[in-house]
UniProtKB/TrEMBL annotation:
It is found in: Nucleus. One of its GO terms (cellular component) is nucleus. GO terms for molecular function: DNA-binding transcription factor activity, RNA polymerase II-specific; transcription cis-regulatory region binding; zinc ion binding. Pfam families: Fungal_trans_2, Zn_clus. Residues 20-50 form the Zn(2)-C6 fungal-type domain. PROSITE patterns: ZN2_CY6_FUNGAL_1, ZN2_CY6_FUNGAL_2. PANTHER family: LYSINE BIOSYNTHESIS REGULATORY PROTEIN LYS14 (PTHR37534:SF49), TRANSCRIPTIONAL ACTIVATOR PROTEIN UGA3 (PTHR37534). InterPro entries: Fun_TF, Zn2-C6_fun-type_DNA-bd_sf, Zn2Cys6_DnaBD. This is Zn(2)-C6 fungal-type domain-containing protein. One of its GO terms (biological process) is positive regulation of transcription by RNA polymerase II. CDD domains: GAL4. It comes from the Eukaryota.
Length: 562
């Protein structure tokens, strides 16, 4: 009997069951899909299971079978037209060269900004464990650390330090001088004060200071060679024990005015920043504040006055004060050190800070003013706030920072980066500007342009704070920062920032892993709020939380951005 045509059939059209059990599908029988067991399996006493069965194309190919329906059946040729199928496949192969393929971007080890369960479980905490850049950085020739053989012979200068009796100790001092100190300044012509000021002072120093220096050198080295982590902990413990004995000495309190104590605390502070950059480095910051205050009370000198001949004390005190100012820009906490540290040589760029003391003073004033913004209750208070904010803005715009050498372009670029970032920070913290504000977009592009130039030249010191400010204020919708015209390649902000952070992880003494973790967390928060709407009040209410206070401040406690 001939088969009926589709138009002559009566009754409901039988369709293939997509929810059938494994037994019915294997027997090519329609399954009624009843639960927990279909009718057919129940009648035959079979195990009714609807688990998915994965099929692998490689397995079918090895057995000489077609995978699915590819090349086996179609409505025009039937099931046996293998010659036509082969012709079709050869035709498809010949047309591959004529196809236009989409561009696939290069994937680097530093380029992943993933979201996981912890992103939502710990929404208020950066996930630093994902962002340990020290294990991800591939050392390029521009940023390659100069390798030296383990335990070299003594150089002619080392016998000047009788406290270094073992080759291992001498070698760690070499590493501090050759690898750590150059990474503390953006200057290409002048030695870092961590060498030029601290090294002569070490000629008469106690073993405790050398232990602190060796701990810092071993800790920094452990970022690329984990074998030095244990040695770093050993020297750190010895230095802390020696410092504790000095501070608890039951004699005259005059020994607390010895600048060596501050230098030991400075090295231990840097150790904690390089190691984990958590609350432990702020313990040394608080201790230094108390010690400096005690010294000034004992000297019966006005606040801010120090012995002009004591270059070591001046450098150590400014180190802690600078750490306080730069860290407060992110977390907006109350200051520990007053602004009197920035009165001398106001316009001259400091080698370690990478900017002028006047700029640091302005940053401190901006942070202090931002802390009062949500406490303004009267119109007169708001008017005074606006006048002060405008005055700080004019000072930043007109600020001139000078260098000792006109040829030191890297140091000047680092100082200009900080000035541009300070203007961006002022508008974000005081005026409530956001990544979509035209002024913010312009300053982010200017900062990233300089960062790109410094990245190509290999000069990456003193870039942590300006890069952080530009990164957290980058517009997620318009990530293209420049290019696309006259044949110029398009440069996207996030890949550029990640590339710079990866390079800085090997070329600075800052804890880049912590900075990157906070930046990534801000990016994830902004991306998430693009879908559900921004929680920041844009009505201009001075008592409401602005963009900087909402996205950056809660994540930035105990950050070192100096």
């Amino acid at each position: 009997m001939p088969r009926r045509k589709a138009a002559d059939r009566v009754g409901p059209v039988k369709t293939r069951s997509r929810g059938g059990c494994k037994e019915c599908r294997a027997s090519r029988v329609r399954c009624d899909g009843l639960k927990p067991s279909c009718t057919r399996c129940k009648e035959r006493g079979l195990t009714c299971s609807t688990e998915l069965v994965l099929k692998w194309e490689s397995e079918f190919t090895s057995r000489g079978l077609a995978f699915g329906r590819a090349g086996v059946w179609n409505k025009s040729r039937g099931t046996g037209d293998t010659q036509s199928g082969q012709s079709s496949r050869s035709s498809d192969s010949s047309s591959l060269a004529d196809r236009e393929w989409c561009f696939f971007p290069a994937i680097e080890s530093w380029g992943f900004v993933n979201s996981g369960v912890s992103t939502f479980e710990q929404s208020g905490q950066p996930n630093i464990s994902w962002d340990q850049l020290d294990t991800l950085v591939v050392h390029s020739p521009v940023f390659q650390r100069v390798e030296i053989e383990p335990f070299p012979a003594l150089s002619p200068t080392l016998p000047l330090f009788p406290n270094l009796s073992q080759p291992q100790q001498q070698y760690l001092l070499d590493y501090y001088l050759d690898q750590v100190c150059p990474r503390t300044t953006a200057s290409s012509t002048t030695s870092s004060p961590f060498a030029s000021v601290i090294l002569p002072f070490c000629l008469s120093a106690s073993p405790t200071l050398f232990q602190a220096i060796q701990a810092l050198g071993a800790c920094h080295w452990s970022r690329s060679n984990p074998e030095y982590a244990t040695l770093a902990l050993k020297f750190k413990w010895q230095a802390i024990r020696g410092l504790r004995q000095r501070l608890s000495n039951a004699g005259s309190m005059s020994h607390l005015q010895d600048p060596e104590i501050l230098v030991i605390m400075m090295m231990l502070c840097l150790y904690e920043i390089v190691d984990n950059c958590d609350q432990r480095w702020t313990v040394h910051l608080q201790g230094a504040k108390d010690l400096i205050r005690f010294k000034r009370q004992q000297q019966l000198l006005p606040s801010g006055a120090t012995d002009a001949t004591d270059a070591v004390s001046i450098f150590a005190e400014r180190f802690f004060a600078f750490q306080d100012v730069m860290g407060r820009t992110a977390c907006a906490k109350e200051k520990l050190f007053e602004n009197d540290y920035w009165r001398e040589n106001k316009g001259k760029i400091d080698l370690w800070m990478g900017c002028s003391p006047e700029l640091v003073s302005l940053l401190s004033s901006i942070t202090d003013l931002s802390r009062t913004r949500r406490q303004l209750t009267t119109d007169s208070d708001r008017a005074a706030f606006s006048l002060r904010a405008a005055s700080l803005g004019r000072e930043l715009e007109n600020l001139v920072q000078e260098t000792d050498s006109d040829a030191d372009k890297s140091l000047w670029s680092a100082a200009e980066l900080k000035r541009l970032a300070a203007v961006l920070y002022l508008h974000s913290a005081l005026y409530g500007a956001s990544p979509t504000t035209p002024l913010v977009v312009g300053y982010v592009r200017r900062i990233l342009r300089i960062v790109s130039d410094l990245l190509e030249s290999g000069s990456l010191a003193s870039m942590t704070w300006p890069l952080f400010v530009a990164a957290v204020e980058l517009d997620p919708v318009h990530d293209e920062v420049w290019g696309g015209m006259n044949g110029e390649d398009v440069v996207h902000g996030r890949p550029l920032i990640l590339r710079a952070l990866a390079a800085m992880a090997d070329s600075s003494v800052s804890n880049i892993a912590r900075s990157r973790a906070v930046i990534v967390k801000v990016w994830q928060a902004r991306d998430n709020d693009m879908l559900k709407g921004s929680p920041v009040d844009t009505s201009g209410d001075p008592t409401s939380c602005n963009d900087w206070e909402w996205y950056i401040v809660p994540l930035s406690d105990a950050m070192s951005l100096a």
